[in-house]
Specification:
387 residues; alpha/beta; Alkaline Phosphatase, subunit A; 16 helices; 14 strands; elongated
């Protein structure tokens, strides 16, 4: 069995046009390869570190250890990965990634030096090292081209056009050197999407978790498919790659994810994120999303929202209870929010002192008058004693 996965960093599905693909475009290449696109696939943690944690482990961020932006698999993944199962089946590993990205910890730590790795960005040199005569192969290629183009040309139409063009060229290089028919399965996916600059500047913070960033590109090719694509509209997640690969190698799977081959789908996907976009030490989760096929519901410290901006119609108490049951980070925040509500009630309590005397309540206008009064000398212990 030979499996190839290609991760295309930051590709946002909504910028892709498969209905009217232009010649030599990324979309045209995907159609030529042939396979199934999953339009409703999401990342529970839409940044590279957390998405890779989900991809390798088949578990959500709160369960795999990669639960904030700076927590990459090498340092924080606390569960096993599908690579462990492939290793048991004597698979030969090949990993290509930007060496600067690799040091962040894209791979589970025990595979950082396992198999064949690139030492520079010469992808042709790396591809020449893949021995297709081997019976069992798992090759993983991490392409940062689209993300880099957005950084270079801006998060705008120009950046997207340049990024997809360069990405297409890189994929051409891959399949010009690796005949696609040599592989039983090819998975091409993105780890998260992005925001255009104008969206980032003008949208509410909770929309960092709408489809622009949480929806990921997911494409699955099986040997023999060519020049055609189909769509599977089921709701799925990056964690579903794990059971998909287990099905490929005829390995049993028990867990909360569903194989992409299966008719089963998620009723919902829970995603969460930081309100500050750039990574920081000890970042906290401050936005939560309940993702369904047709709607995304958000919860923040400040309230409840929908992705279409319309009124939040769900019962808020029941929604909070549901999130508490699904999200460890929200459960902790919810407890603190309730304590703060109680604290406000306590601070506003103007009833009685312990001795039964009524408390003296000073209004805002009285406070301002006192502040404006001329300062007068006050008695301290020292002045009272004549010092």
């Amino acid at each position: 069995m030979k499996i190839l996965s290609i991760m295309c960093d930051m590709v946002r599905p909504s910028v892709l046009d498969f209905d009217n693909p232009i010649n030599k475009s990324f979309e045209k290449k995907i159609i030529e390869i042939g396979g199934t696109i999953y339009p409703n696939c999401f990342s529970p943690g839409p940044d590279t570190g957390r998405s890779l944690g989900c991809y390798w482990s088949g578990k959500n961020p709160q369960d795999n250890g990669c639960d904030t932006r700076a927590k990459y698999p090498k340092f924080y993944l606390k569960t096993g990965s599908f690579l462990d199962k492939l290793a048991e089946h004597k698979y030969n590993f090949y990993f290509f990634t930007n060496p600067n990205e690799k040091v962040l910890g894209d791979l589970p730590i025990i595979y950082e030096n396992e198999g064949v790795h690139n030492d520079d960005l010469d992808i042709k040199k790396f591809l020449s090292k893949i021995d297709l005569s081997q019976e069992n192969i798992y090759a993983h290629i991490f392409l940062t081209d689209f993300h880099w183009a957005i950084d270079d040309y801006g998060a705008n139409g120009c950046g997207v056009e340049k990024g997809l063009s360069i990405l297409r060229e890189s994929i051409d290089i891959i399949f010009n050197n690796l005949p696609i028919d040599e592989f039983d399965y090819v998975i091409i996916f993105s780890d998260h999407g992005f925001k255009y600059s104008i969206e980032f500047e003008h949208q509410e913070k909770y929309l960092l978790l709408n489809r622009d960033r949480s929806n990921v590109f997911m494409f699955l090719h099986k040997k023999g498919e060519k020049n055609d694509i189909s769509y599977n509209n089921k709701l799925c997640s990056l964690i579903d790659v794990y059971p998909t690969i287990m099905e490929m190698i005829n390995e049993e799977y028990e867990g909360d994810a569903y194989s992409l081959f299966s008719d089963n789908e998620h009723e919902f996907v829970i995603a969460d994120d930081h309100s500050e976009f750039l990574p920081k030490v000890n970042q906290t989760i401050e936005i939560w999303a309940l993702i369904k096929k047709q709607r995304i519901y958000f919860r923040t410290f400040d309230g409840y929202f929908r992705d279409d901006g319309k009124e939040f119609e769900l019962n808020k108490e029941e929604f909070d209870a549901f999130l508490c049951n699904q999200s460890k980070s929200f459960l902790e925040v919810y407890k603190q929010l309730k304590i703060l509500d109680l604290y406000k009630n306590m601070a506003n309590d103007k009833s009685y002192y312990t001795n039964g005397a009524p408390r003296y309540s000073v209004g805002k206008s009285d406070i301002l008058k006192r502040i404006k009064r001329k300062k007068t000398a006050y008695t301290t212990r020292e002045t009272y004693n004549g010092k």
